[in-house]
Write a structure and sequence with these properties.
- By secondary structure, the protein is an alpha/beta fold.
- It has helices at residues 13-16, 22-34, 37-40, 74-83, 109-119, 137-149, 171-174, 189-198, 236-248, 264-270, 273-279, and strands at 8-11, 44-46, 87-93, 123-127, 156-159, 178-180, 211-213, 253-255, 288-291, 296-302, 308-314, 320-325, 339-343, 349-353, 356-361, 365-373.
- The chain folds into 2 domains: 8-279, Aldolase class I (TIM Barrel); 288-373, Sandwich (Immunoglobulin-like).
- It has an 8-stranded parallel beta sheet with strand order 7-6-5-4-3-2-1-8. Strands 9-10-11-16-13-14 form a 6-stranded antiparallel beta sheet, with helices on one face.
- Strand 4 (123-127), helix 6 (137-149) and strand 5 form a beta-alpha-beta unit.
- The radius of gyration is 21 Å and the shape is globular.
- 48% of the residues are buried.
Length: 374
């Protein structure tokens, strides 16, 4: 099993889009180490779409790195990433072309898998654009899964199917290690809110070996980059909600902001060891949900050490007092037990509570706690 825990790393698409090159990848690898992100668990550095020439090699049929963007070839880049103690990721698509119009892997799966292995790839993001109408998506993902299993190298398969064709029903059996269960994210509150709400009835589908992928993080983008340009970006409160919820549902944590200019506040959020601990919990139990309205809800997640994580999210435009009852957690008054609660954002103890817990939650905000039963 290649993905016992949700993968953590960096992906180029959110910030750079097609404007990627060797210099950016090498500098990002340096920053992942320098900023302490590698040591916090972020191990994959993934190059997304637009890395190749527009035509395959006419003699070998192989995909070829863009000679201007990657003058030293992809193995050189991969070796540098590995030298930093990181893992290297590539990108392709089930279709004839990638989403940006570059050659993709339809009917070239086994050759491309061998090419990625020769590059030294440890991870493949596999998109869903330009698929012939007669081709079955489930079968195409099976093909690449088999190709990667037989390429001579362990490569994680990240299926990017945008939530189409009910992938939660068959992606595990097809052989993927994680799969996009949503459409593309943008650096806006509406985008991240709608993505998380769309997943509340699918949380039980994730677990070791197959994770629900709610897309790359926008934390720290602040309206810049490929999915941020022309938008106002999210507030720090909204970014806190994004990270807490991605951690609570154990989504992959793939940073999308430019690490060469990320601010200290959002860097600290991405490195929050208490929230990462929730995301990487070994038991990998999905949270259960209490709805407080269309966009407001409480998530409760049992952790492997006998503790539990609880988040309260207010997706409305004004502050709300939210609550949960210990009875609903399986802790009735007759048990004599309550919760000793620690703020997962700050590490501060907020007290011991029995029967009910209430707290004000700001607009678009999330409170998140790690709780000990006693």
């Amino acid at each position: 099993m290649l993905a016992k825990k949700p993968p953590m790393g960096f992906n180029t698409w959110n910030t750079f889009g097609e404007n990627i090159n060797e210099k950016i990848i090498l500098e990002t690898a340096d920053k992942m180490v320098e900023l302490g992100l590698r040591d916090a668990g972020y191990e994959y550095l993934v190059i997304d779409d637009c890395w190749s020439e527009h035509e395959r090699d006419p003699e070998t049929g192989r995909l070829v790195p863009d000679h201007v963007k990657f003058p030293n070839g992809m193995k050189y880049v991969s070796d540098y990433v590995h030298s930093k103690g990181l893992k290297f990721g590539m990108y392709s698509d089930v279709g004839v072309y990638t989403c940006a119009g570059y050659p993709a892997s339809f009917d070239h799966e086994f050759l491309d898998a061998k090419t990625f292995a020769d590059f030294g790839a440890d991870y493949l993001k596999y998109d869903y654009g330009y698929k012939p109408a007669s081709a079955n998506g489930e079968v195409l993902y099976r093909r690449m899964a088999q190709a990667l299993r037989n390429c001579g190298r362990d490569i994680v398969l990240s299926a990017c199917q945008w939530g189409c064709d009910d992938p939660h029903l068959w992606m595990r059996s097809a052989g993927a290690d994680l799969y996009r269960s949503t459409g593309d994210i943008e650096d806006t509150w509406e985008s991240l809110r709608n993505i998380i709400v769309s997943q509340l009835d699918k949380l039980c589908c994730a677990g070791p070996g197959l994770w629900n992928d709610t897309d790359m993080l926008t934390i720290g983008m602040r309206g810049r980059g490929n999915v941020g340009e022309g938008r106002k970006g999210c507030t720090d409160t909204e970014y806190e909600t994004e990270f807490a919820l991605w951690c609570m549902i154990q989504a992959p944590l793939m940073i999308g902001a430019d690490l060469r200019g990320i601010d200290d506040v959002n860097l600290a959020l991405l490195k929050n060891e208490r929230l990462i601990r929730i995301n990487q919990d070994e038991d990998a139990r999905p949270p259960y949900v209490f709805r407080h309205g269309e966009y407001s809800f409480v998530l409760v997640k049992l952790l492997s050490d006998g503790e539990m994580a609880i988040s309260m999210t207010n997706g409305n435009d004004g502050e709300r007092h939210m609550c949960f009852f210990m009875e609903d957690l399986g802790l009735p008054v007759s048990s004599g037990l309550g919760l000793d609660m620690t703020d997962a954002f700050t590490g501060e103890n907020v007290g011991y509570f029995k029967e009910i817990f209430r707290a004000p939650v700001p607009a678009h905000g999330t409170k998140c706690y790690i709780c000990t039963v006693r």
